[in-house]
Task: inverse folding
C-alpha cells in the first residue's frame, strides 16, 4: 500500500469525493429551517389567540416544538426531513429533541425503561447541567454588575 503525504492525501480525497451542491443545500436548509420556525410561530399565535399570557405562550410553544421533534424522530420521519433540509433541521429546539430521542431509539432493543428511558439522559444530563451552571454564572455576573 502506498504511503501518502498530507498534500497527496488531500488531493486524492478531493479527486474521489463528489462535489456538494452548496447552493442547493443552503436553499433547502433555509426553506426547511424557515418552515420549522413558521410552525413554531403558528403555535405561538395560537396560544396567544386562546388567551395565554406571553410567558405561558413561550413555554407552551417550546413544549409543543420539542414534542413535535421527538414524535417525528420516534416515527423515523425527522431523519428523512434532515436528509432533505440538512442544516435547516438543527433549529435548536427541535434539533435538541431529535438528538435526545435518536440516542434513546438506538437502545430500543434493551427495553423501554432500561434502554430508551435510561439512554435519553445520556445526552440530556450534560446539557441540563451545563445550562444550569451557565445560568447561575450569568445571574452572578448580572448581580455583580448591576446590584453591587
Result:
Amino acid at each position: 500500500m502506498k504511503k501518502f503525504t498530507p498534500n497527496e492525501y488531500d488531493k486524492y480525497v478531493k479527486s474521489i469525493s463528489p462535489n456538494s451542491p452548496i447552493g442547493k443545500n443552503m436553499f433547502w436548509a433555509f426553506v426547511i429551517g424557515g418552515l420549522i420556525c413558521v410552525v413554531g410561530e403558528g403555535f405561538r399565535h395560537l396560544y396567544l389567540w386562546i388567551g395565554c399570557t406571553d410567558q405561558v405562550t413561550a413555554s407552551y410553544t417550546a413544549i409543543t416544538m420539542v414534542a413535535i421533534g421527538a414524535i417525528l424522530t420516534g416515527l423515523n420521519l425527522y431523519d428523512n426531513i434532515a436528509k432533505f433540509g440538512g442544516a435547516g433541521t438543527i433549529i435548536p429546539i427541535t434539533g435538541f429533541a431529535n438528538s435526545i430521542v435518536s440516542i434513546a431509539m438506538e437502545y430500543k432493543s434493551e427495553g423501554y425503561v432500561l434502554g430508551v428511558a435510561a439512554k435519553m439522559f445520556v445526552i440530556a444530563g450534560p446539557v441540563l447541567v451545563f445550562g444550569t451552571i451557565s445560568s447561575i454564572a450569568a445571574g452572578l455576573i448580572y448581580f455583580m454588575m448591576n446590584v453591587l
Observations:
- Residues 33-146 form one domain.
- Residues 47 and 56 are 8 Å apart (CA to CA).
- The chain has six helices and no strands.
